[in-house]
Amino acid sequence: MPASAPDQASAADQTLAPQLPAQSDDRAASTNDIVVTGTRITSSGFNAPTPTTVIGEEQILKNAQPNIFTTVAQLPSLQGSTGANTGTFSTSSGSQGLSSFSLRGLGTIRTLTLLDGQRVVGANVTGVPDISQFPQLLIKRVDIVTGGASASYGSDAVGGVINFITDTKFTGFKANVQTGVTTYGDDGQVLFQAAVGKSFANDRLHVILSGEYAKEQGVGPGNFGEDLAGSRDWYRATTLVNTGIMNNGSPQYLVRDHGQAYQYTKYGLISAGPLQGTAFDANGQPFPFQYGSNGVPAKDRAGNVNGCFVGFCVGGDQSGHVGSGTSLQSAIQRLNGYTRISYDVAPDMEVYMTANVAQVKTHNQPNPGSAKTGLTVQCANPYLPASISAACAANGITSFQYGLSNAILPNIRVNTDRRQYRFVGGLKGKADLLGTNWTYDTSYEHGINITDIDVDNISLTGRYNQAINATRINGQIVCADAAARAAGCQPINIFGGATPSAAALAYVTPAAGPFQHTKQTQDAFAGSISGEPITLWAGPLAVAAGIEYRREFYRVNADPYGAGVSDISPNSTLYPADPSLNSVNGSNWYAGNYKNGTGKYNVLESFLELNLPILNSDTLGRANVNAAGRATRYSTSGVVYAWKVGGTWDTPLDGLRFRAVTSRDVRAPNLSELFAAPVTTTVPNFTDPRRTAENPNGRQVLIIQNTIGNTALRPEIARNTELGVVYARPKWLPGLSLSFDYYKIKLNDVISSLSAQQVVNLCLVDNIPDTCGAFDLDSDSKFVNVQSFNLASIKTDGFDIEASYQWRKPLGIDGNFTLRGLTTHVIKYVTDPGLPGTIPVDSAGANTGATPNWKWLVTESYDNDAFSITLQQRWFSDGVYGNQYVVCSAGNCPVSTSNNPTIDNNTMKGAFYFDIGGALNVTKQVSMFFKVDNLFDHDPEPSPQTNTGLDVNPALYDTLGRFYRIGVRARF
């Protein structure tokens, strides 16, 4: 909403952002609206009690990132955001390359992201938008409200609000061209941006157009073993190995480099039985596998290895390791077009329309090949070397257990294509009512996001199992199963590195790979007013009120192999009948088994916000109370209320202000949680825990597990409290601003998922009625519905420190020096699963997650008319792998438990990154710039896993290394 000019000062005081001189046309800056995101009130001189951090246009330019998302995500209060460097190990999540924010570590679904104060259609069924689809060149400021804002802005604002403010009155032309590459020669980047704005009809009609193209080539994948992309050498397959020891005084878990999964190798390994330990080289010749830890295969049916740990050895032959083959960063390509047309119907009345059409395409490799373990191979397989066939006979076996990385198969590639079509129309302005000036703003937004996910080179599990079961008929090697042969089965040799035939690959990895087509729509109407109806003893009473309506809808369609259909038949040329496939329930792919689904809900809400000045005195200072309430009716869960109460006190001491606010905030369940596309699987040997005389320990039954949404979910409810002090622009040092804010958040009814066994046990064993309606174990068609429930809770607290100092003409030298620092300290972040037998876990300081104890960002910059130079430091503190672990050494360990396991090492180092950038003004309109991120090429710390994935945490650590960027900017 528009605000009067004095708000500029109050906004700057509130956010502590230095107001640097604009490098460009002052006409644009002078006509722009000033929006204070922490409140819906537009009263002059009003200070909202909610802390707000601002990233201005100058800082955005100096950071020189190809995506503004990266600049914002560097802030210490943002923890757990997702981008192109996260989720690259995933095939089925649908979030690859999705740029979305997480404040306070509460997750992307609990951070509300706005564009010019308005909602944006989700780019994922969780409802989060993709920042890559925003018109980035026109963004003049980003406001980050680090506190609950549901009363002002509605659902999802539990962690806070991030509001991108565009230059709605931009006039002139500007462009940006830049390129970049890592020190390892990968992730090559190009970015082209241009925008033009012009006024017509005596400045009443204003038109803005912008467009941009960006491409980042991504990083990786690497190869099998420990060979990362480029010449990076930091990957060591660090593994959290389980000794299996619980009570002999030794630690249960050991942190070890070069972990080796002993169930498979690159070209195949006999993993159990009398031939265990026989591996195959690229030529298909057998050789004794070299186990790490001096392991010796037990040659039993369970496949144990003496001298090793549960599932892992340390060292030995690492050639089949798959973790290093994961992309370190998804490739991403952005196309964005934006226009805004506005017309001043009257001097204080503007009608406007915006259109934003964007496309973001990404791709990544989750891992090389597609590792298989526990395969049963017949000794009569004609591809098997004669020596192994003879060994089978000598040992009296007809089959053996086998595992391989499947290096013979093409590598999996996940491709995403997100397209956004967003249109907004509105009317805003000022009007006099009963002698009082009011601002008003009405808008309607219609957004569509279409996401297509296609997975290449992935196998159908049933067909793969048929293809590796070969036999010889009339001298020719064929698939052993006659029905599979009739369906087109072609045999595959899995002993060694022989490339399968084109026909075999077409059968096992058909071109019609997994795909998912999702359409999401959002329709949102909003209308609000703000004014000062009366003047009281300490100043005018300010009021803001409004009503909003929103409708969310999604539909997802997936391929029949994954989703399952009843009409996969001989009449289908694309999906012919095949006995190896489950035509009804689907889930036939190695990974990427997407499902069909649909859902919708609507929201009607109204809000009222008041600012009551209570003190205005030269002796006692100025003080105000700010309060807001919102009533919201969700079509799925009924009515819920949000509110906030806070205030500020400008003390009579020069520059000193106190602020405090407490709020009740909400997050409604999203489309995915409510209407998840169903997944059906058969679960044999499921335990019915009810004890009878016949079955004193319960009974084993076969069930159908239905993974579904839960339309009975309730909104999550949070209590958010913040206390702060600001010392800004004292007369003795007007360039100084300091603030300290303590926050505390308690989130109840957190939506979390349960396993089928947990669903049943909670009802029948623990007598918790929430899950009793989700299963039936007494009828002939026994089933368990696996859903999300409102069971968990989260408690977190900490504090933020922000400081800035601006020194004009330092030491008499023309120019400006600016120092700014932001720090967040997470004191605790406790998650209680809400399940019997579990205990709350504090993840503050666990660097395997997203909430280190300390995190800060510091920038120093010097600017004059000729050039600028900027230094930036990013740091987070040392931490642990998990606070639940008990550190001990052999002979001194207590009993290890599931809630508090013992471990030999629980230290995970933090990281310090140093960035440098600068610009040279060639003319008043054109400048050249450079930026180097991670100047000292600091490697990430390993994040130990208990599997064979990529042992790194990209949510905290820089996984790419030193990065160089150069470019040219122009503005006329």
UniProtKB/TrEMBL annotation:
It is a multi-pass membrane protein. A motif (TonB C-terminal box) lies at residues 955-972. Its main location: membrane. Keywords: Cell outer membrane, Membrane, Receptor, Signal, TonB box, Transmembrane, Transmembrane beta strand, Transport. It is found in: Cell outer membrane. Residues 47-161 form the TonB-dependent receptor plug domain. It comes from the Bacteria. PROSITE patterns: TONB_DEPENDENT_REC_2, TONB_DEPENDENT_REC_3. The keyword Transmembrane applies. Residues 1-14 have a biased composition (Low complexity). Residues 1-29 are annotated as: Disordered. Belongs to the TonB-dependent receptor family. This is TonB-dependent receptor. It comes from Sphingomonas albertensis.
